[in-house]
Amino acid sequence: MQAIQIHSNGGPEVLQMSTLPDPEPGAGEVLIRIEASGVNFIDIYFREGRYPAPLPYTLGQEAAGTIVSVGPEVDGFRAGERVAWCGVAGTYATLAVAPVGQLIKVPEAITTAQAAAAILQGMTAHYLLHATFVPQFGDSVLIHAGAGGTGLLLIQMARRFGAEIITTVSTEEKAALAREAGAHHVLLYTQEDIVARVREITHGEGLPVVYDSVGKSTFEQSLQCLCPRGVLVLFGAASGAVPPFDLIRLSQMGSLYVTRPTLRDYVATREDLEQRAREVFRWVGDGSLKLRIAHTYPLAEAAQAQRELEARATTGKLLLIP
Ligand code: NDP
Fold first, then answer.
1. Which of 43, 33, 30, 20 lies closest to 303, judged by CA?
2. Residues 208, 137: contact at Cβ < 8 Å?
3. What is the pLDDT of residues 220-278, one digit of tens each?
4. Ligand 1 atom nearest to 239, measured from its CA
5. Which domains does the chain have, with CATH numbers?
6. Residue 23: which of 59, 71, 65, 64 has the closest Cα?
7. 209 pLDDT band (50/70/90 cuts)?
8. Is the CB of 218 within 6 Å of ligand 1?
9. For the chain, first and last CA: distance in Å?
10. What is the pLDDT of residue 27?
11. Model's pTM, two decimal places?
């Protein structure tokens, strides 16, 4: 099999195409031929070593494909079925082994590439809005990086709650995409005073929630956009990690809350995983959740995909096609 591995941490140049023996599925596992693999920001954190992993390490943790063979003690899955999964390392590859507990069958109504594009970012948007902070009808919410893979899905899903959506993006082109996805107010955070604009939109009140995946460069502004007892959902660090923070400031700024959620904890049970994935796939299948698969790359160009993602040059989803 072919796989994109790293042998050291660093920039995109550390990605190398390797030829490895085909893996064998163990007990409770299946072998899958990957048809599409998602490129996510978390892959960059692993490459850099911000999230440590033993080396050599095969990057990627989101894919969809067809089961080639099943290991012992596997019930309910068979060769030839289409499946999608995330949270298991090693998907920048032509083949992967995954435990059946992580697999979701791909419904007829969607393509394998759509399943790979939706499962990680779709379930992320789903848990953030259905479990981390649930907006009430009419709430104003701020979603940073609204034209990104996760951002475009968050905007569309937040519309289902009847929220007034404020989002931030870096360019006019991205602003148009965020508006198309359903955002009511699109702010250019590279040019505008976000706090002032949010205060203006909310008539001075501030927001009950900010969904912030940008981290270092937006953290302070996100806090300042909140109303008393508001919640900052800090779910990523695309601009870098937030520096250490004195908790007394939460009290001084209005008894604020900060949470740092991660998908793993919101799909920890099979019931949660199935419920979130099935709902996301159903919405993709019935057309009510639009995926923007804006960039596809051959597996060998994984480094280029990561370069563009971290240079803010992408919108929507990036896929590697082995
Ligand atoms: P995106 O497609 O959203 O790409 C990241 C975007 O962040 C860029 O397009 C850019 O949009 C914005 N950005 C702002 N500042 C920077 C910067 N300095 N460098 C790079 N990008 C910047 O990526 P994903 O959808 O894959 O991930 C978005 C975030 O969500 C990541 O932080 C990721 O870790 C997080 N995440 C968290 C999960 C969780 O469970 N906690 C699960 C999934 C994703 P613009 O040009 O408009 O500023």
1. 43
2. no
3. 999 999 999 999 999 999 999 999 999 999 999 999 999 999 999 999 999 999 999 99
4. 18
5. 2-120+267-321 (3.90.180.10), 137-260 (3.40.50.720)
6. 71
7. very high
8. no
9. 10
10. 98
11. 0.98
Residue nearest to atom 3 of ligand 1 (CA): 148
Atom of ligand 1 nearest to the CA of 146: 47
The atom of ligand 1 lying closest to the CA of 260 is: 41
CA 301-306-307 angle, to 5 degrees, is 95
> Tens of pLDDT along 267-294?
999 999 999 999 999 999 999 999 999 9
Sign of CA dihedral 207, 192, 316, 63: negative
Q: Is-contact 176 315, C-beta < 8 A?
A: no
DSSP 242: P
CA of 25 to the centre of ligand 1 (A): 33
Measured distance CA(94)–CA(220) in Å, rounded: 42
Q: How confident is the model at residue 216 (pLDDT cuts 50, 70, 90)?
A: very high
Ligand 1 mutation pick, 39, 42, 130, 150, max ligand atoms within 8 A of CB: 150
Atom of ligand 1 nearest to the CA of 147: 47
